Fold this protein.
Amino acid sequence: MKGMWLLFALFSAVGSAAEHVEFRYSELYGKMKYNADDMFPDVEVRFYLIDPKTGETCEWTEGWMQKEAKFEALVVPDDFSLHIPIDGHLRRANPDVTFVKTSDTVCDVSIDVLSFNPDASFSSLTRQFEGLYEKLSGSVGRFFMPEIAGLTYHFPNNVTKQFTEAPSPESITDAVKVTATFEQ
């Protein structure tokens, strides 16, 4: 009977663990700290859970940070990014961060660098993307980063336009975000 209960507990834990994605705060903070950096006012880092088969964002319904008896709920953003508050005290405490997915699909973690300010100047955005990618890649990795060849402006309905020089303001009127385009 004890063996049967242990087997049930094991399968229950495995089933529920498939829906929970857990990190240490420091794993997310190490990259997201640049979102609070004045050098990158228009560019930010976002983490997403992505279904490797479809490329779709895995949705999550709740999240929290916990360290012993202290607990803080996280807000679920509309785009389901894995957003945490950037805080030096939390970095030192290094709480567990948990996100509860809506399905048991295995998801990969994706780190996106993007801008939600398409009105910022082309040259400013390009410099900020270059600087942030350099910081994220580290002292050795930056030598292996491809050059940024331009910017891709994203519009509603999955429409994108790539530019290698500053676009006319009229051509990006409805843009909702911007990402870097790399040399091939």
Q: What stands out?
A: The first strand starts at residue 20 and ends at 24.
